[in-house]
Specification:
The chain is an alpha/beta fold and 142 residues long. It is built from 4 helices and 11 strands. A 5-stranded mixed β-sheet has the order 1-2-5-4-3. It has a two-stranded antiparallel ribbon with strand order 6-11. Strands 7-8 form a two-stranded antiparallel sheet.
Amino acid sequence: MIIFIKDRPIKILDNKASRPFSFFSKFDKTIDTQTEMLKVAHLKGQVLLLNVTPITVEKLLHFLENFELADLQAVSVIPKDKEAIEKRIKKLYTVVKAAGGVVTKNERFLLMFRRGVWDLPKGKLDDGEKSKKSQRKRLCAK
């Protein structure tokens, strides 16, 4: 699961997958939330949070929504219980499924300016619509 808070990706990863050492080296800060309390000062660059509980994820979301975190790029979360984390997030937010993609022509990229931010073209899925169909509908010329 990937969610975006103020255009920053928050990736909820599977805690069962084994990861090579090189995976951990790409983060600027790694915090084991079982042994260290999450603080606003930790949220700079690429951050990895380990052993995250639903309470910790609520704290993270509070920080993301209420503090100016100009130096934060992304947060990856490896929870103790991924299902519990996803359930808590879905309880706090409305899930909006969307699809889109990268459109290029003659080495130029198509972007859209919406809500004061440049972004890739995309749109919400209609009820029962599959991502691939929605993507083609929004990105392909008729």
